[in-house]
Request: fold
Amino acid sequence: MLGQPISMNVPKVIGFELKGSLNEGVTATDLVLTITERLRSYGVVGKFVEFCGNGLKNLTLADRATISNMAPEYGATCGFFPTDNETINYLELSGRDSHQLKIISTYTKFQTLWFDEKILYKYDESIQLDLNKVKPSVAGPKRPQDKILLKNVPHSFNSLFRDNIKNKSSDQELVSGDIVIAAITSCTN
Reply:
């Protein structure tokens, strides 16, 4: 920069390999809560996370955006996906002409930025997740990155708010544990 050398640390890149496909009834929210839980426990602060694997072909653009949007919650500098057909479909949908799409496709393939599941990519560290094992869940109850399996919600709710519900003096009084409004945040609901 300006003729002067700059030293910088290149962040580690974690390869997060997705295999299989989500079961019926499992949403992108369930997936992103599972991924966030895994990455927070693994420790990815200051690292890049690239999602890869044969499971990519089973994720929609919306699924990918939801996963990438949660990078601050799982602690990574960024979460991203390689260029593939889903990328080209999005670029076409957003108004790029066929000439631009051809340039992007050709360039990313030439630079080995195009995802090819036959290639064994090298990452600083790797994690795997079988999409078939993701279970329906909800965020919370206190932080959006926390996760409770849907089947455990009644037990979790009762254990958190049992005393408040028992000690409630009237239906007019609000206590912790009353359901008043559900919010949709930028990343989870």
